[in-house]
Amino acid sequence: MTTPTSTASNSQPLTDAPAWAAAAATRLRYLQANFADDPAESREAFLEDELKKLLDPVPLGKRQLYLDTLAEKFPTWESLSSAPAVATKAASEERTPDEVWALFLKTLPKFSLEQRETIKARLADAGFVRVSGDSIDGSSTADIVEKLKIPPSDKIDGSRLGKLYAALAEFAIMTDQLAWNVWKGLAPKSTIRRDGSAGDLRTALRRSTTGDPEVSAAQIAAQLEKNRQLIAGLIAAIGPAGKNFTRRFQSRYSPEAIRDMVKLEGASVFGNADARNWKKYTELAQEISEDTIQTDMMDAVAKYAEELMKGQNR
Fold this sequence. Notes:
mainly alpha
């Protein structure tokens, strides 16, 4: 068929966006109808060329506005199936790389997580980003392979390793803070203290991870081992501490202990022995309160945990 002659011309005065969009929509619909029997590729190429001509008199800074106004004429784009691709090409060819990047960042928040992963994969295919699921340097993961018993046929995913490291680091940091705060309350006078030479655990991990020569992996391992001993000691002390508290309580407040104290005080052999024992118990009972019991329990836990950490209860 004969190609219709374009009505666009650089010499024509520029109309406002609505008027331009109305004229452009009429022109594009006319061409779409005339090229309906042509292959889609040929139809799209001609529409692209026509839209470029229609955009020629429009200043670069206003082209997006004019194209958006034109898009309103095709709310579903069903009547002009190839127009979206044509408009995108016509607009993007005139944009600078900075403008394209700004438009991409503006549009990105609207994408779903799945769409973002698709974009990332396409950028990786184009060589703009590096997305690798391959194993990382074997020498740096030898300890991981050994600890997790990873067979040679399995490879360590570098991206997942980073996420796992972050999760485990956060767990270790929170546990470290909690355990040492509890220990400080239980045993404020204990000689066992946190090693703060490299800062708290978060600071030490950050310094070691970023290659600080003053904070080696061995130092981090030693700090974590001390944390492990403290937590193990506190947990292990729960049961035995109750028994220790019971023994200490009975050694002072049991009937046998009361009778022994009365005898040591040299009480007269005359008189009612039960009355003297009861009087002594009522005197000692004033020592028993919520605070004293709590203090005794805490002391029992701290003593057992400290002995365990020092190797005396092993």
